[in-house]
Design goal:
Elements (H helix, E strand, L loop, with lengths): L2 E5 L5 H14 L7 H9 L8 E7 L2 E10 L8 E8 L8 H15 L4 E7 L2 H9 L3 E12 L15 E5 L8 H12 L12 H9 L4 E11 L2 E10 L4 E9 L8 H15 L4 E7 L3 H10 L2 E12 L2
Parallel strand pairs: 4-5, 10-11
Antiparallel strand pairs: 1-2, 2-3, 3-4, 5-12, 6-11, 6-12, 7-8, 8-9, 9-10
Length: about 300
């Protein structure tokens, strides 16, 4: 059997289908499609030096790697390499070859610290440790059965608060960018982020093919978005909230919970049967909110770090 590691080829549909298939099998809690992968590659920021790789065995894509520079961080020299291998094709060297190719590429760009998400399972942790990565913070994947679960009842917004959808901001999404930027900056992370590039946000987030503006719920006060729950869908029956947050001046009023309740109800009414989300394990308030909705932890990922010398 012949194993090769190469770049994902733009415009080759089979490559994107193979990449998406491996990612779905290895990480079924994360929404990904061939079209979303093609969008990510076509619209990657130049400073990210984004380079998706595949490991191919006898013409079959059996491993994937998403590789790039954390260009949104004020700290230079930070890169990332997230490797996933087909669960039935592990132990053949695909993961190691992908890691080696990714590290050589990132080192050539001047990266000195590499971050990698690894499922919190013994074999995966051992793989990361063998390649010089040490465990850092962790995050949970959570799942909610929308088809059979019981959602909290819808509630009327408090006085002065109005519920809208992301679609209502189609003509001018900049206020949503400002809110997303503020809340993302407060997310627990071992990487400091600065989200100031509106045009990049339009490409990466607002125009992303998985984003559902209709199912994204926004709490508005005096015409200003102050809380939101951003939704993505995969074109089938899977729905995910990729960010739920509140502006600092409006926290503690239950507005994020209000927006997410609204989004979940509309997702179920639209025929979606599974809901997914993710939380840093240290984000206890959001974990408590998601458990209140009925979400259950279905997997945990641990971020690993390697210092390049």
């Amino acid at each position: 059997m012949t194993m090769t590691v190469r770049d994902l080829r733009p415009g080759v549909r089979a490559d994107f289908e193979g990449f998406a298939r491996v990612r779905h099998l290895a990480l079924p809690f994360y929404l990904v499609t061939p079209d979303s992968l093609a969008h990510d590659l076509a619209h990657a920021h130049p400073d990210s030096h984004y380079r998706p790789l595949v490991a191919e065995e006898d013409g079959e894509v059996i491993g994937t790697a998403q590789v790039g520079i954390v260009h949104e961080s004020p700290e230079p020299g930070q890169g990332y390499v997230n490797v996933y291998v087909h669960p039935e094709r592990t132990g053949r060297g695909a993961g190691s070859q992908l890691v080696r190719a990714a590290e050589e590429y990132l080192a050539g760009l001047g990266a000195t610290k590499l971050f990698a998400w690894v499922l919190d399972e013994p074999d995966n942790r051992a793989f990361a440790e063998r390649h010089g990565y040490r465990g850092s913070r962790s995050a949970h994947f959570l799942r909610l059965d929308l088809a059979h679960g019981t959602l909290p009842p819808l509630q009327d917004p408090p006085p002065g608060v109005e519920l809208r959808t992301g679609a209502d901001f189609a003509d001018d999404p900049r206020p949503l960018f400002a809110l997303d930027s503020e809340t993302m900056s407060d997310e627990p992370s071992d990487i400091a982020y600065e989200f100031t590039d509106y045009e990049a946000w339009l490409e990466d987030t607002w125009n992303h093919p998985l984003l559902s503006r209709e199912l994204t719920s926004v709490a508005v006060v005096d015409g200003r978005p102050v809380a939101f729950s951003a939704a993505r869908t995969d074109g089938g029956t899977r729905y995910g909230t990729v960010m739920t947050g509140t502006a600092r001046a409006f926290r503690g009023r239950g507005l994020a919970k209000l927006a997410k309740t609204d989004s979940l109800h509309r997702a179920r009414a639209a025929g979606f049967t599974e809901a997914f989300t993710g939380n840093d394990t240290g984000n206890e308030p959001m974990i408590a909110i998601n458990k209140w909705f009925g979400y259950e932890i279905c997997a945990t990922e641990m971020r690993h770090v390697r210092e390049l010398t």
